[in-house]
Amino acid sequence: MNSKDKILENIRISTLKRQVDLEDILSSQNLTVEENSLILLDKFKNSLAGVSAEYRFFSDFSEAKDIINNFFSGYKQCVNMIKDIAISGIKLDELSSPKALHPLDLAIIKGEFGVAENGAIWVDAGKLPDRAIPFLCENLVVMIDSNELVTDMHQAYQRTDTSDYSYGVFITGPSKTADIEQTLVVGAQGPKRMLVLCKGYD
Amino acid sequence: MAIDFKQKSASFVENKDRSAWHDTALWFVRNKRDIGVMGVEYWEQLRLQASNIKTHCLSNLDKYLVEFEENALKNGAIVHWAKDGDEHNKIVGEILNKHKVTKIVKSKSMLTEECELNPYLEKNGIEVIDTDLGERIIQLRNEPPSHIVLPAIHIKKEEVSELFHEKWDTERGNNDPQYLTYQARLSLRKDFLTSDAALTGVNFAVAETGEIVVCTNEGNADMGVNITPVQIHSMGLEKLIPKRSHLGVFTRMLARSATGQAITVYTSHFKKPKPKGEMHIIIVDNGRSERLKKEGFWTSLKCIRCGACMNTCPIYRRSGGHSYGYTIPGPIGAILTPNINLEKYSDLPFASTLCGSCSDVCPVKIDIHNQLYKWRQVIGRNNVLPKTKTIAMGMAGKMLEKPGIFKFAFKMGRIALKILPDFIVYNRWNNWGKGRKMPEIKKK
Amino acid sequence: MKIALSIPCFIEEFYPEVADSSMELMRKIGIEFDVPRGQTCCGQPLANSGYEHKAIGAYHHYVNTFGDFEQTLMISGSCSYHIKEHYDVIEQTGKVKRLRENIRDLTEYIMSEYIGKLPKVSYPHKVSLHTGCHSLRGMRFGVSSELGMPTKSFLIPLVEHIENIEIITLDRPDECCGFGGTFSVYYDEISVRMGTDKLDDAINKGVEVLVSNDMSCLMHLDGIIKKRKLPLKVRHILQVLNGDKL
Fold first, then answer.
1. Out of C14, C52, C180, closest to residue B439 by CB
2. In this predicted complex, what is the ipTM?
3. Of the partner residues A14, A181, A190, the one whose CB lies closest to the CB of residue B156
4. In the CATH hierarchy, which top-level class contains the domain C119-241?
């Protein structure tokens, strides 16, 4: 017998005795506290501030470009995945491997929606020409539509249920660690700064 | 050799400043957790849901494992099954050999600690780099983690500074955590860029979709997986949850319980391999299916490894993780280890006052303190109690049944207490008197 | 109703004044009770040490002593918790079931049933209240700080009517004191440190008296206080409610 069969057979000794069907309990209780869109936006902004993410609102793409240039002046290598923002980046199809992206000063990518309770942004990273982009960069810009907010993670997973992603990440601020004496340091292995560009009005 | 928690914890607490520092650091994390939890309406209902989902899943585990494998295969992943740690290590080794990998980056995985993967790979000529900062620190110090979420919580910044200076020639005496973190970042970046495969642990595996979810704050799991062509995810088979929607429950609880964060910085859903990449998932048993059989104990498999029971445990905080002598220390470690070796770890279930704080803090409602109590009975019945514990209890059982004898014994105790001078009471009577006065027997 | 008073073994031997004050208070507020002869220990120290199988005799003896009463009141949250929770290993006869259902911590019983009848007393001291862990997290008298809701101590309503009392909340109000029965002897170093930390917390806040419903926690803390000659005292809450002077 192979390991798979051995393991499953051993598990069945227990599961055959223990027929617990909890499907009803699991689906019955909705724990989301519904909020109106203004409160959601407020909560989202508070959450972003709490995770050391910076945020700015913009109404048109030339404004977005200015915001980025002001924030990250002097960047050299850049990847820009948002065509409407007129910032030229490196040509990704010429890369031999994701390692060639390093050093990457700036990456500008699209977020699908934000989560008010914690400031997380869903990034369909499998769609990027290279999945390493949001992690290798020193500075990360994620653009989202400020109408695209959900209340909490329950709603967030309802929302992503319909999309067929190959690799998706909730990104919640720049990378962090507190592994040395519980002192928070922003910028562990991934981006040191993260700017959330919100399309819409504050 | 049996783990001597008594001796190890006593020597940890003997260094008063250091154990106080350790206790304060972890209490700080517990406080952050409280603030995070209080910010969630229906926290207790969330706990109940999480616990129910796990009960349901573990009670149908065979079905869900098969469903998970089917879906993972459809996604293009390669699924392996390992009955124990050795088989797991062999599988990893074979994958790496096939791709001629000589260096691998790892993100935090308590499972690979459990399987002792690193020494196995190193023996086979593969360089292993732990990329979580805390894990990297302890790897450089060549010691095991003392906490499952905060592996280097026992180490002071001065010691980290000294270590980095020695290994990487960083500035001597610079103890600034930010400076030290950035030095590690530079060093680890080089490792990422020179590795050919990445291995991660797994926080959740979703049966419905065949995807696996990994939670980190540093971004080291995503960096490793996305920068190298071969990705390996090692998961204990209890990591399964039935549906994607259940992730809503668990991602709300994991980081809040662990550090007080509302969510980890990265919550990554690995579903399909990257173009031209290979994605391996290793499902590991290593004693878990045996544990599932144990009435009264199987719910310990619900654990999502948040570490909250360690942060809250007044004994763990004052003893340090290394006193437990196992990768997973603290209250949860004390109910997992007797499954592995009853005799070796027989001291651990006693290292608790049964105050119940661990059970109340547990996001999946494992009745940890009750299981500690039950393990004590198993240990007692199997006669593997440490000697120190058997002496005091030898006659007591018989005594308590018979009020006459009971009174007599107390009377003898009284006489002893009255006639023996203080120094004998304090040195020989028992351990009570070392830090405390004996209570006085009063005449009625 | 036939009520029995159960006096834990260590209270009888070391703190008879607590039993005396408890009985005095019960008489004042009009609780009629018997104190059955031949009381011994409930068996908790044995069971917590992995000797449940050897405590069975003690369990039966306890059941025989108290099983005929409609209500058993015990001057301990911890011992009553043990009987409720862990007497499930013996045959569940009518007596056993009745005992497990009807045993209560005397303090909690007075709080729930007789709070309006408590005598008027004055206690001009700075007091810190300590709920035993088995009372708090085992019996759920109050809300522990781990749960996602505001904490509560069941002792608060009891002291609210006491004149001149000043209640001081510690930094870690419901952290275990470190007693834990035989834990205090097996791992005395950690146990003493836990107790010392709690006492330091109290001293730093100017507390004069530590008051609890569990004398066992206090016995441990008192041992440290006396050894270190600390400016603190311990009292059972029923002594305070009875109007005993400090």
1. C14
2. 0.96
3. A181
4. alpha beta
